[in-house]
Amino acid sequence: MDEAISQLTERAPAPRAVSLRRFDVTERVLHWVTALDVLTLIVTGAILYFPSFSVRVGQRLLIENIHTLSGILALVPLLVALWGRWGVMLRKDVMRLTRFDQREWRWFDRTRRMKLELGKFNPGQKLNAIFSISGLVVLLGTGLVLRFPNPFPVSIRQGVTFVHDWFAFLVALLVFGHIGFALFNPRALWSMLSGRIDRLWAERHAPAWVREYDLVEERSQQERSLH
Amino acid sequence: MDERVEHVGALIEPKRIGRRLFLSVIGLGAVGVALGPGLLNIESKFLGVFSKKPGTGIASLVPGASQFRIYSVTNTIPFVANDAYRLRVGGLVHTQRTLSLQDLKNMPATLLTKDFQCVTGWRVPNVHWKGVMLRDLLDVVGVDQRAKAVEFASFDGTYTESLTLVEARRSDVIIAYEMLGAPVAPEHGGPVRLYVAPMYGYKSAKWLKSINLVKAAQPGFWEQNGYEVEGWIGRSNGRSDKPVD
User: Fold this and answer.
1) Could you tell me if residue A6 is inside a domain?
2) Looking at the predicted structure, is the pLDDT value of residue B3 above 50?
3) How confident is the model at residue B64 (pLDDT cuts 50, 70, 90)?
C-alpha cells in the first residue's frame, strides 16, 4: 500500500489523450438508425403531402404503409438503447441534454456567448434534442389517429390533421437545421461515426466537459494504479 | 454506478427543463388538436390575402391552408385517356346513356367560380369550374318517377358517393371537365369529376365512371367511415365553416 502511494506521488502527470471519447457505440448506432428512420418519414411524408410528388410516385398504399411503420418504429431504438447496460453513456448524456444552467440562456445572445464555459452540449443542441423527441411523440400520437381514424369523431380528426401537418413541418425544419450544422462542422459530424473528437475542438466548444473528462480519466487512472 | 453529471466549471445548479419542455410540447399538440379546425380557418383567410391563385405564393410554403391535397382511397391515381373516357348514366331512367367526353362538351356548359372546402379543414378559394349541370344530364336520360336518389361510382373501382334527387337538381352541382382553368387533371379526378359546391369535398366524387338513379342510395365510401351523408358545408360533421353559395 505504501509503495503504491509513493508510486502515485512520484508519477509524472498522466499524458492527456489527444482525442476524447464523445459518443459510445450505443449512441452512434442509435443516432444513425434513428436518422435513417426519420429521413424515411420525411421522404414518404412529403410524397403523401405534396400533390406533385404524390402524382409522380403513385403507390399510395405502399408509401402509407412505409410511413406508418417508420413512425411506429421511430422511438423504439431510443427506448431499447436507454433500457439496458449498454445505455450508461446515453443515459448520462440524456441528463446533460435535459438540464439547463440559468446562465446558459445567455448563449442565445451572440454578443455574450463567448464568456460562457459550456459543457458537453450547447443550449441549442439541448433544445433541439428536447424538441425533436417531443415533436416525434406528438407526431406518433396524431399519426396513429390519422391512420386508424374510425374510433374518433370528425372534429378530432380535423384537429389531428392540423397538428400533424404543422409538427411535421417544424420537426423537419429542426432536422434540416441539424443536418446543416453537421455539414458545417465536419469534425463534429465525423465524431458521430468514429466516436472521438479531438481535444482542440472540445476545448473550444465544450471546455467544461473537457475538464470534467480529464478529471474522470485521472481518477480512473489513479484507481487503476492503486490496484 | 453513479450517473449524475458532474458539472465541473461554470455550470452550477442546473435546472431540469427537459421534462417541462417535453410536457409543454405535448400540451401544445393537444391544444392544437382541440383548436385546429378553427385555427385552420383563420390561417386560410390570412394566407388567402397573399395568394391570388390557389396553391401559390406563401400559402404553398406552410402546411394547411389554401391548397389542394390529393387524396385517393386506392393505391394509384387512376388514369383514363380523354378518348377512352365513358360516363354511364343508368338505373331508374327512361333511356340509359353512355356519354363520351365530347358528348359532355357538346352539352350546354356551366361555369362556376367557387371555393372547395375539405372536411379536414383546408379550403381552396375561388376555384374555376366548368362542366355540365347534373340536372341537364338527368333531363337527357329522363328520370323514372320511382327514383329518389343518385349514386356515383368512381373508376378507381372503390369510391362511391350519392345525392338525393332534390340535391342533384341544384344548379351548383355539375359534372366538371374543367377545373382551375384547365382540363381536370388526373390527380383532381380527371377527365371528369363531380363538383357539389355546397357540400364538403368528399361529396365531389373524382374519376366519375357512372351515375345510377335509385330508390334509396347506399352510403358512400367515406360515409361508411364516419362522415355524414348530408355533407353540407358548415352544417355537418361538427364543423362551422362558411358555406359555399
Assistant:
1) no
2) no
3) low
Across the interface, whether the CB atoms of B29 and A142 are under 8 A apart is answered yes
Instruction: Look at the block and give the residue holding cell 359532355.
Output: B104
Q: How many CB atoms lie within 10 A of CB A220?
A: 10
Asked if B42 reaches chain A (Cβ–Cβ under 8 Å), the answer is no
Query: Which CATH number belongs to the domain containing residue A151 in this structure?
Result: 1.20.950.20
Record the pTM. Answer: 0.77
| Residue ranges covered by each domain of chain B | 68-225
Domains: count for chain A: 1
A105 in any annotated domain: no
Question: Are B12 and A101 within 8 A, CB to CB?
Answer: yes
Distances (CA, A) of B34 to A62, A139, A162, A167, B198: 30, 15, 10, 15, 25
Structural domain span for residue A186: 17-97+117-226
Rounded to whole angstroms, the Cα distance separating B219 from A181 reads: 53
- A1: in domain: no
Mean pLDDT of A115-120: 83
A59 → closest Cβ in B16, B75, B237: B75
Using the beta-carbon criterion (under 8 Å), do A92 and B3 form an inter-chain contact?
Answer: yes
- Is A163 a member of any domain? yes
The answer to whether the Cβ–Cβ distance between B15 and A101 falls below 8 Å is yes
Report, at the CATH architecture level, how domain B68-225 is classified: Alpha-Beta Complex (3.90)
Tens digit of pLDDT for each residue in A46-74?
Answer: 998 887 788 788 788 889 999 999 999 99
Tell me the chain B residues in contact with residue A216 when contact means C-beta distances shorter than 8 Å.
6
The interface pTM score, or ipTM, of the predicted complex is 0.82
How many H-runs (helices) and E-runs (strands) does chain B carry? 4, 11
- Considering only the beta carbons, identify the residue of A137, A141, A155 that sits closest to B37: A155
| pLDDT tens, position by position, A145-163 | 988 887 888 778 878 988 9
Do B207 and B156 touch, CB atoms closer than 8 A?
A: yes
Contact A212 B35 (CB under 8 A): no
